[in-house]
């Protein structure tokens, strides 16, 4: 079984400032890692994913995340945020070998970008 | 055209009623899912179907019954609704039934169910 912890439930940040959203996971098996974004009253949208290879992953809208196996972390960063980045962000994992492509999500981090 | 569409968007109903939520995807994906998002935004998988076959059935009360008439549709029927069923239900699809699917999930915009 896997679990995902997002350490911050809310992150207020000023426009054009950098932001980091923290994600730690626990798993007895190898996992793939994902970040999804949910804008108000919408479904989730894939930001980026780590499957293998380089531990620094670049995604859409200027986001990037770094996989750290020893710390079981997958933190999300953006060097300069816009008002439009205000949303809920979800970290998720999936078991590399399990059938069914099930995602286990963290509790989400609400990012509020202030002008 | 919406890739994954759910109907209705909002559903308010009384305890004890039976209701259905419909989901359709026009992406040609093989796998579809139902996730429940509770009031604290926590998302948990309920079911997944791959090409009409049930693959994942999490610990969900048997009042919830999914039905997939074809691989483009996955409906969710709920019997004897309870207050605790109030949540946002998301349908999603993915091209393949494996985590290495490079396209990830495509989510619908959700159905907000309120049981009163």
What are the salient characteristics of this protein?
heterodimer, A: about 120 residues, mainly beta, six-stranded mixed β-sheet, four-stranded antiparallel β-sheet, 12 strands, about 0% helix, about 55% strand, globular, B: about 120 residues, seven-stranded mixed β-sheet, 11 strands
Main beta sheet of chain B: strand number and arrangement?
7 strands, mixed
Radius of gyration of chain B: 13 Å
**How much beta of chain A, percentage-wise?**
over 45%
Radius of gyration of chain A: 14 Å
Description:
Helix content of chain A is 0%, strand content 56%. Chain A has 115 residues and is an all-beta fold. In chain A, strands 2, 5, 6, 10, 11 and 12 form a 6-stranded mixed beta sheet that branches. A 4-stranded antiparallel beta sheet of chain A has the order 3-9-8-7, with no helix packed on it. The radius of gyration of chain A is 14 Å and the shape is globular. The model of chain A has no long low-confidence stretch (mean pLDDT 94). With 116 residues, chain B is mainly beta. Chain B has no helices and 11 strands. Chain B has strands at residues 4-7, 10-13, 19-25, 31-37, 43-50, 53-57, 64-70, 73-78, 87-94, 106-107, 111-115. Chain B is globular and about 40 Å long. The termini of chain B are far apart. The A-B interface holds A 32, 34, 36, 41-46, 49, 51, 88, 90, 94-96, 98-105, 107-108 and B 4, 31, 40-45, 48, 50, 55-56, 90, 92, 94, 96-105, 107-110.
Topology:
The complex is a heterodimer of chains A (115) and B (116).
Chain A (H helix, E strand, L loop, with lengths): L1 E5 L3 E5 L4 E3 L1 E5 L3 E8 L5 E7 L5 E3 L5 E5 L4 E6 L8 E9 L8 E2 L3 E6 L1
Parallel strand pairs in A: 2-12
Antiparallel strand pairs in A: 1-4, 3-9, 5-6, 5-10, 7-8, 8-9, 10-11, 10-12
Chain B lengths: L3 E4 L2 E4 L5 E7 L5 E7 L5 E8 L2 E5 L6 E7 L2 E6 L8 E8 L11 E2 L3 E5 L1
In short:
By secondary structure, chain A is mainly β.
